[in-house]
Amino acid sequence: TEEWIELFNQGNEDVNLSNWILDDQEQGSERYTIPLNTFILKQNYLVLKRKQTGIILNNDQDRTRLFDPNNQLKSEVFYQEAKQGQSYSRMENGKWEWTELLTPSGKNELRIKNYELVKENQENIKTQEQKDELRKENTKTQEETQNQNKNESKIKNYELVKENQENIKTQEQKDDKIKNQEKASLMTTSFTLTSLKEVRKMEKGAKVKIRGVVSCVPGILGSQIFYLSGSGIQVYLYDKDFPELNLGDEIEIQGSLSSYQNEARINLSSKEDIKILQKNQPINLEEITINEINENTEGFLIKVKGEVIETLGNTFYLADETNKKIKVYIKESTKIEKSRMQKGDQMEVTGIVSQLGEEYRILPRFQEDIRILNPNVQIPISNKISNLNAKTSSLYDEQNQNIKQTQNSNVKIQNQNKNIEIEKQEEKKQEEKKSETKKTATTAGIGASATLAAIYRRQIFLFLAKIFFKG
Question: What is the pTM of this model?
Fold first, then answer.
């Protein structure tokens, strides 16, 4: 039967597996990218055969890993001493077991050696007991013979059951032994004490011991990794069982030099490979240009400034005066809320230089690692209202000036009337005409001012309403 790897969707919604990645252990088979529009239905299975994926599973030991499109590890299993013709299956209790019962696209079931035999013997015991009950009327000799046979059968079957239980226990002990051997493999090896700067020049697989200051603790950029500052490097522990580490801790570690996606890392065997030397030590932060982000600064904690040239989702790109651009990627595990930014904004970003394949990127650690220096400034609504109030005040001042002019005109007319009254009574007709002209002029002046004020008020009201609903 051809080798295969099976995925299970235990959720209550269908999952789109487009661009998810299937891989075995590092430096093993070539990674397999799941094609576009590949879905796995809720509570269902997806079987990927070796002919399709090209992934070859080793018999001595190997890993199988599943990554999402952002290259985040979502599931992983490690095995040793593969049993030919059997599958390594995750049971309902969460434990992985070797089973002879192959169930591709179906529920995992445990069947190990002697399982069927034990079941058959249990049925034999039940059948034998039923037969014994039917033969109670036979002679005493026959009953004794039958009882003796039954006891012998029970003893034999009991021994088989016990043997099977011992096999299961032995398998669990083997699993524990494998884990202990994996942890002890590095403990029996001599390690070369070296510096962070020199460790990058050594060959992969070299056993090294180095010292450094923690620049990013476990759980921020990944549950299995943390970083050391200076000529920084990624530190990896498979079982995630780290001691309590804090920023600024100076530590000594020992492990084997390796790489992942072209990024150098040191693989640890257990948390005993980490020794805390001092607390609250300064963390080396390098302020560099984008052009200086390369293999020589990989793993460094750096600070760069640049202009936003592109932004999408959890990613944005910066460029500076060197005409180089760099990707800034916000990992979900950091819980950083991406700032509202747009093209042209000047940014200051602090983070770890990481490599993924042939691409370099900056990984911010905390919210304060991302700062907008001079965002595009928009006039606050309060300023608009202040400007409008100033304009309104000017309009009302103009209105009051018009009213004062009208009042001065009225006073002047009244003075003229007093002079006219002193004149001779014979000019009465002409005086009455002048009086009518005075009243008409007064009314016209006041009416014009009142109408003008009403127009101003109506224009101002409509303008305020537009600003209010626009906001």
Answer: 0.46
